[in-house]
Design goal:
single chain; about 425 residues; alpha/beta; Aspartate Aminotransferase, domain 2; 2 domains; seven-stranded mixed sheet; four-stranded mixed sheet; 15 helices; globular; binds pyridoxal-5'-phosphate
Length: about 425
């Protein structure tokens, strides 16, 4: 059923009521974003009657496709019994069990609602546990919209040219040291300079928020070694990569064990939920048994928990084929896209890991944020617009990641290749 207002009219109205007309800046693009009416499987359907093969997938939150029946059923069933209790439930214990069964470094789990909350709590946990102040992060990595990590952050912060947000006290920012990704020499030097002050190293083990950027073989191992040497904790922010690269996330995919992992996005199957997980001796620093305070009215709420259990159970059941199939179909798509660009003599770099990929409009091999920034954003934007007209929705920024879900059909992928071929003729 078509809504009464068009996307254009809705955006005009929204702009008077919501800053920039959107509730998260990454959703904004010119001349105005389409407004979604409903989503099913691999498709978004907008209020103007268009449908799009979706590669944004709610910025990576969706792995089985939109409105996945087992998730909807679990949530409908839970709705009958109440939506939030303010008491513990058995389902929270079941979910914690499922997570610890599959995420290698997870002895214990604390649930929260969003990725930002999870990283905020993880950083406080690391500082509380080590009794030290400094945080090391990497350029282009995004860890949510809170003070200690909005320093040279990726995602919307890079897209809109404000990687350093206003409103962050200098005293907060000075405790965050930012280094280039994949640069082992600088890492070693800085760790030495920071000496005894380093509480934690936080990193996206494969970056998804500057577009896809992969870790060099030695980088993650070196992070682990550095953290150990400084008696600091290594935090893998797996809000994107958790349950996406493998059931055990990047930790399993790359075989490097951090001390703390943050999870979100895929975990909730489309509902807001996140988690801080890690080694027992670290996790027991959380209140009420330890001195690190962390809390949330909606943390572990039964709706999100039921969606998360349905999602993880399904991932567990399908894991032997699912991750191989996703990686296989994404690799095939990427190969076909590469050929199209080569045929047109257009220099791009396509980075891919598992079901994640980004087409960078640059001839520089992209291994860090500085190199990602050599991309031609104007070209990307017209490519993006052109794809929209052909019914393909890529996330609206050069510095975001395309996600393939298990709902993407052979036909969807073929349509995408055709759409890209025809978009390239318009560039
Ligand atoms: C999305 C994301 C976050 C923030 O999650 P929200 O749910 O948007 O707060 C943190 N870290 C990474 C790696 C992310 O991709």
């Amino acid at each position: 059923m078509a809504s009464k207002l068009s996307s254009s009219a809705l955006f005009k109205k929204a702009s008077g009521l919501i800053p920039g007309g959107v509730n998260s800046p990454v959703r904004s693009f010119k001349p105005y974003p389409f407004f979604t009416e409903y989503a099913k499987g691999s498709k978004l359907h907008d209020v103007d009657g268009n449908k799009y093969v979706d590669y944004c997938m709610a910025y990576g939150a969706i792995i089985f496709g939109h409105s996945h029946p087992p998730v909807l059923e679990a949530v409908k069933k839970q709705l009958e019994s109440g939506t939030v209790y303010g008491t513990p439930t058995e389902a929270e214990v079941d979910l914690a069990q499922l997570i610890t069964d599959h995420v290698p470094c997870a002895d214990m789990v604390r649930l929260a609602n969003t990725g930002a909350e999870a990283t905020m709590h993880a950083i406080r946990l690391a500082r509380g546990f080590t009794g030290k102040p400094k945080l090391l992060k990497f350029e282009g990595c995004y860890h949510g919209a809170h003070d200690s990590v909005l320093v040279k952050a990726g995602s919307g912060a890079t897209t809109f040219g404000v990687p350093n947000s206003l409103g962050i006290p200098e005293n907060t920012a000075k405790n965050t040291v930012v280094l280039p990704y994949n640069d082992i020499e600088t890492l070693k030097q800085t760790a030495e300079d920071l000496g005894d002050d380093l509480a934690a190293i936080i990193v996206e083990p494969a970056i998804g928020n500057m577009g896809v950027i992969l870790p060099s073989e030695a980088f993650l191992t070196e992070l682990k070694r550095t953290a150990e040497k400084c008696r600091a904790l290594l935090i893998f922010d797996e809000v994107i990569t958790g349950f996406r690269l493998a059931l055990g996330g990047a930790e399993e995919y790359y075989g490097v064990r951090p001390d703390i992992v943050t999870l979100g996005k895929v975990l909730g199957g489309g509902f807001p939920i996140s988690a801080v997980v890690g080694k027992k001796k670290v996790m027991e620093s959380f209140s009420p048994i330890g001195g690190v305070y962390e809390a949330g009215t909606f943390s572990g709420n039964p709706i999100s928990v039921s969606a998360a259990i349905a999602t993880l159970s399904e991932l567990e059941k399908q894991r032997s084929r699912l991750y191989n199939n996703l990686e296989g179909s994404t690799s095939k798509l990427v190969k076909n896209l590469r050929e199209l660009f080569t045929d047109k003599n257009l220099q791009v770099q396509i980075n891919q890991v598992a079901s994640m990929f980004t087409i960078f409009f640059t001839n520089t091999y992209v291994t860090d944020s500085k190199k990602a920034l050599t991309s031609d954003k104007t070209k990307f934007n017209s490519f993006h617009q052109s794809l929209l007209r052909k019914g393909v929705f890529f996330p609206p920024s050069q510095f975001e990641t395309c996600f393939v879900s298990s709902a993407h059909t052979e036909e969807d992928l073929e349509h995408t290749v055709e759409a890209v071929a025809s978009a390239l003729n318009e560039l």
